[in-house]
Fold these 3 entries.
Entry 1:
Amino acid sequence: MTARYSLALRLVSAIRLGAVLVMRPRRPVAHLYLGPVTETGSFVRSGFAVLCGARTRRLSVVVEGLDGLGPQLRLCRRCAPLVQALAPSSPYAGRVLVAFDDMAAAFAHLTPADFETAARWCRTVDETYQVGTLSGLVLGPVPLVARTEEQRVRKRVDEVLLKRRNRLRNAELSPEERADRAARRELEADERARVQAARARADRIARANDRANRGQYLMPSQRELLAQVANE
């Protein structure tokens, strides 16, 4: 059930099912581990092997997940297929999931916190859409207005996901595309400022006309403004 899904989803699924993400220092391959760790929670206890049984030296626990570990990190090819072994009773183990109902059931063990973590660990824009689809299937649609704590948690997952997607999308832009976007943002900011200034001037003109029609005193700036309008 894991082969077609991103590294972020596979890892949060494995961790939710009891595994620990570990790796050797300065090595790009992460392993899954089931067993005791040191009292500090930083290392695997000596004499215990990772899930795939690979012979390794001392392994450290990856506390921060994929954040800051760089795009070269990959999950051990022998550990990845064993994620489904963490839940051997699952009827979805080893299946290629197509139906939305099957996808929702296969990942039903994930919590909103898991999806939030997966959103932060996404490393491509496509992965963010995958996490968004599955979070919608498992957690339900994003509420327009979050009135309950459950709705606020659900909304936060979507906010984290959108923020990560925008960050990744910007990172994938070429220097020319970044310059083009910066120029467009500058033009849009200038246009907004022009519209706001025009609205503010129209409001001042309306107030001055209203006072003049009522026969009320006009300040010098208001008289000057009405004179400018008359000459336009």
Note: Residues 14 and 114 are 11 Å apart (CA to CA).
Entry 2:
Amino acid sequence: MEFIKKEIEDMSDQEPSRIKHEDTEQQTDQVEVKQERQELNEDEEEEEEEEEEEEEHNFTTPRPKAKKLHTCTECGKIFQRKGDLNRHMRVHTGEKPYTCPQCEKSFQNKGDINKHLRIHTGEKPYTCPQCDKSFTQKGSLKTHLRIHTGEKPYTCTQCGKSFTYLADLNYHLHIHSGEKPFNCDQCGKEFISSSHLKQHLKVHSDEKPHVCSLCGKSFARLDSFKLHEKSHEQLLTGEKPYKCSYCDKSFTQSGTLKSHERLHTGERPYKCSYCDKSFAHSGNLKSHERVHTGEKLHNCTLCGKSFTRSKNLVKHILKHCSQ
């Protein structure tokens, strides 16, 4: 009996403990659920607060204004600044508010008159780092540097030949098209470039005001005179800055280099006005055209006979000497 009583007591003691433990687990679950709900509510409240702050920020912070654009009423070109539009309008109006105080030449922009004034002052602020030659404009220095670098940025789309200067490419393109857009207003003769026309105009004018103090040679154009003077300097210094792209030869003048390079390229830019013949050098063309015109510039001082070419006159004079 005692054994049974003891067993019953043991079971009675375990039951409250089990019930108590179950109650504790239930309470723990309830606490965890309560905590989860509280955390969820706190998260929702934080999200609502962030949304309210964002809306408040968007409402109170002014949005950046779009930049006002300025449109030209003449051509429709658009500018961001009114000052740029005002400067552009001078293209249409022809207004030139900046006048040179020395020669009264007028300009549309302040930058242009500043460049022009260097002609009078002799200022040359842009110096080549390789040969110390100076220039009045930055663009002129940039173009000059191609002589040293060998850069040829202008390429013919028809034959692939490249050029250092844009003017040379434009001149070359006339060879492909056969166009001669430059006309002499005195005789109507047509030329492939403006420089050839200028050279031709000397035929109509015998005036040669620029005289070399070293050799006495005279020139009609100032640029030709300056090139001639430079050739004297280069002969003294031995400087030959113009290098052939195809061989190792160098030259004192760019014109001589161009003539030389035609030996490599086979280019014959000088076309006869009377037939289909072409020549690599302008001098050869002039001599050839005299065959058509009958012009005889070379006269024998001994007998008065005239010749179209100088070499024929030399042969003729040798005959006089042998008699």
Note: Residues 2-60 form the longest helix (59 residues).
Entry 3:
Amino acid sequence: MKEPACRTVFAGVDGRTDAQLPEWYATKKGIDDPASFAEAIRNLPRAVETTVAYQNPYTNEWVETERFNAVVEPSRLRKHAMGDAETDPLFHVPSDSYTILNPVDVYGPLEEVLREEAVDETPLGEVMFGEIRQYRAGGEVHMDVMFDGLDVRLPGRSDPITMGVTSGYDFFGGHAVYVEGFAQDGFCSNTMRSLTDKEVIKHVGDVKDFRTWWEHILAQVELVADDLFEFIRDAQEIEIDFTVMPFMGEEFYELLGFPSYLAERAAGDAEANAATPFEIDMWTLHSGATYALTHFFKGKEGASLDQYVRIANDILFNPEGTVERVEQAYEHQLEADGDAEETQAALAGEHGLAQIERVSESLQSKAEQFDSREDALRERFQQAMS
């Protein structure tokens, strides 16, 4: 993933909480003295509006317009006025329907909720931690907010999978304010994104009640924590036997849509963590995908990452659909290679397709179990958001 211009690690909602980073996270980040969440939010660049004008080429006069406003960073306006010509205060020039949502507007209400909501009778504000990442001089921001103790613990692992949310926004008109369920595996530092549907508030029109919005979202995250363990346990029972498949792990990920450089990393991690590299369960295959995306993805956070996150999540939450996708991609690959004659290669391809179909059929008995659990989870989400 592209390196941000600035990272801020935080622990605790504000300076009044005696919060500490979990040991596994502090070791990973190499941070001894994290900021508080409130401090980190207030240190983020903010935006204000100022007047826009255009130049009339016939008169060389500048004409102001009320149809657009410049979205600028106020501290950089000051630096520019003091002679710092290299400082660019401009973020964006949107239409007059654009509503600026500054960090405190969005995350200030979250601070209030975190002081009141609790996990195991401990206020969330005392166990929250995470990281804020700034891109494009702070005009684009993404953050992970996790809660120590709101987690999933797998047998044989000392470090938990810690639950939380990932959220962000930008001032360039590209990203509305968003939030979605998130988890980080302390065992391998892999991040699990898009664990809930993405909730979005656009910079256009009426701005809703952020406090109520955050209350509903945190309720969703607790539901995911309750169900994630069951999904993982079921996925561990579904194995792909690559000795009967017409390909190994790397091509499995490529057929799902991963580029070669990610497929290679995903397969390497999955094979290394499996009991045998020839028979790998769906949880380990999912973990391999999240490993590649967490540590080796070359693109940006946002839409370019989201498409691969959806593929990775399907391995865990929709294993039957994942194998069907592999089967269709393999069939299309055979058609593209296409030789109508029954050459040895063509026969091998047909045999390989038949093997994938057998695996797909064997998963149908599990599919109903996964579908019913997912349906129940979505129904609870809807109730939490109503």
Note: The first helix runs from residue 23 to 29.
